[in-house]
Amino acid sequence: MHGRYLPSNRENNAARKRDGNKGNFVWSYGATNLLNPYTTRFVSKKNWRTAAFVMASANFLYIPKDVNDSVVNSQFGHANSLTNAVVKNDLPTIMLGVGVQIRFDQIQNLSSQSFIGLDPYMKFLTEVGNRHDRKSIAVRGDVTETFCRNSGISQCISLGCPSLTISHNLNLGGILKAKLAAVSSRLANGGHGKNLKVVIALPALNLSLPSDKQKYKNILSLFLQFYQQHDCYFIVQSGYDRVHLHTHSNIVVNHTRVLEFEDSVEPWFEFMRTVDLVVSTRIHGGMAGVVNEVPTIIIPTDYRIYELVNSMKLPFLNVDQILKKNYTSLLEMLDDVSFDFESFERNRKMKIAEYQRIFHGVGLQIHPKLENVITAYDSLGYDMRGDASLGTNKKQ
Hints:
Blueprint lengths: L9 H8 L5 H10 L20 E4 L4 E2 L8 H19 L3 E6 L1 E2 L17 H11 L7 E3 L2 H9 L5 E3 L13 H19 L6 E5 L8 H20 L1 E5 L3 H10 L9 E2 L5 H8 L4 E4 L2 H8 L5 E3 L4 H10 L6 H7 L4 H5 L6 H20 L7 H12 L17
Parallel strand pairs: 1-3, 2-4, 3-5, 5-6, 7-8, 7-10, 8-9, 10-11
Helix pairs in contact: 2-10, 3-4, 6-14, 14-15
């Protein structure tokens, strides 16, 4: 398996410590733990018993801004490397979590956009698609699936991030609904209380751009209000987070409230289970809350995050709305969040069922507890082919 989350030990943790984005721990953990640990044996090299090649790689289908965009060259190199691995192994191949890297202002005339002309991407997707007789390229959202379809690649299917499968709770949407209602009630009754424990994930913006720098300052200003009102903790996902926070903060942030989980996801998840609410401008900072049954609000600051929150039907607020509304409290912000919990749960379990279909196609099994989630889904009165009989229930 390419992109596997390796068990915690001194060597593996040291390798992860060198990763510049700790959010990568979350998606690789999700991708790895999709598979049944009791019937699956991971091997580093193909042998005569190897059933399939599973790849987890997220951010390399980069769409160049113009003909002079040099970033695309490194992504072409990564795509070529992955293609070589697919061809060398020459096994039924599954791809997990890949997505198009595109800016908001590049989403125009989507019906005509494709990977045609970006030959390394086309070759990679074609080689993967040729090694499975059904849809086996799990992409992160509808935009990426549309790019694939417009390119003549029919094996792509929108499934969001593999981290959506980390929780084995049989009714995660119901748990999140109850907890968010409890948080809103506490805020309404108690005002600005320090007894509410909140995690904040800072934006990943290019501060060399004046517009991004101003956006960062405005978002941080809102977060610092929450910090002063509640028991808040900032999560460091990238090395620059700590520097940016202290450079652009207009107050002193206590160093004990700035946390970094350097080399493994398990301590991060353990801490998240002690939290009441997550407000995140990072997708995996948000998913670390969701999969640990913590109500989470995501603020997409790039199109990658926006595509993922839509694919997984996560609660979010548009960043422009955040910047215009001048919220003075968490309660004001939560009042603008409309979250269809039943739609989230229906979508989560349908996506788990799609992963099951993909893995069964190459003789692999998903984690048995995920199979239980699908079974519970049926028993709750949902129809895997359509709407839930429970109907829609948005946050009041």
